[in-house]
Amino acid sequence: MFSGIQINKTDAGQTVDVVQIDEAQLPEGNVTVEVECSTLNYKDGLAITGSSPVVRKFPMVPGIDLAGVVSASNHADWKEGDRVVLNGWGVGETHWGGLAQKARLNGDWLIALPKTFTSRQAMAIGTAGYTAALCVDALVNYGITPDQGEILVTGATGGVGSVAVMLLSKAGYTVVAATGKAAEEDYLKGLGASDIIDRASLSEKGKPLQKERWAGVVDAVGSHTLVNACAQTRYCGAVAACGLAQGPDFPCTVMPFILRGVALLGIDSVMAPKSRRDAAWQRLARDLDQAVLESVIAKEIGLADAIPAAAELLEGKIRGRVVVDVNK
Fold this sequence. Notes:
Blueprint: E1 2-10, E2 13-21, E3 31-39, H1 42-49, E4 65-73, E5 83-87, E6 102-105, E7 111-112, H2 119-142, E8 150-153, H3 159-170, E9 175-179, H4 185-191, E10 195-198, H5 200-203, E11 214-219, H6 223-231, E12 233-241, H7 255-259, E13 263-266, H8 274-287, H9 290-295, E14 297-302, H10 303-314, E15 321-325
Parallel strand pairs: 8-9, 8-11, 9-10, 11-12, 12-13, 14-15
Antiparallel strand pairs: 1-2, 3-4, 3-6, 3-15, 4-5, 5-7
Helix pairs in contact: 1-10, 2-3, 2-8
């Protein structure tokens, strides 16, 4: 038996509890992992609170991220004792996820945890940081270089934004962070931002084409913020879009794309191929300052505490990352 958070659906609605689970109940998979740490992402908050129909099967163990040690494997790439990390692939939605002490998974979903990181640090990064690395890789691979100008990061105090600011700064870019939290200026500059702008300047409907400023953008917000970011991007710049905190709509015109040659790069972290995942985690291992990484950890909690923390996350009461020690 092991402990885990389990979401169930009844006629009266959704229930969420920490329960004891028999290992025989674990879903199909060719690798079993002794989970050490997980984390809370926005999607986990939606699943645990039932605010959005994220969970597709019941009962469900939430948690789209996990890090731990392989305890059994029938997969050629993994053996007992290997340290691994998992992000996405539908865990916590259609397959039991990481907010439990054990997980059984498809070995193709796993990557080796870089030796640079402990499980705790890997979950301080989580899907949010891994997504940030995918965004930075996309801009770099597109050809955006530090000498071309400023890079805008929206939602900068969130998990994606915080790590994106760190990675871009480390890679030599001049980073401008957009946030609605003026009190977080010192925090963002400590991560490497050169300047701070108010997110309100981007969040309302604007002109289809605006004054050119950004060589590139990492956007975790969507809606009008993404539209304005595109409208302000310089000729042949690129925008990496990975989130929808403001909304999933995109009320824009084609003008930035056909008159300025702006590229909109869609970033999917859930089903990204292994080659991109490996590259993203290599960037994280190489470029993340571990001392600075500690500053993005909002708090460390146990399994039971993850349930109320999910609501706090959705309410915007938590800055940075929440690490869940599943053995507490």
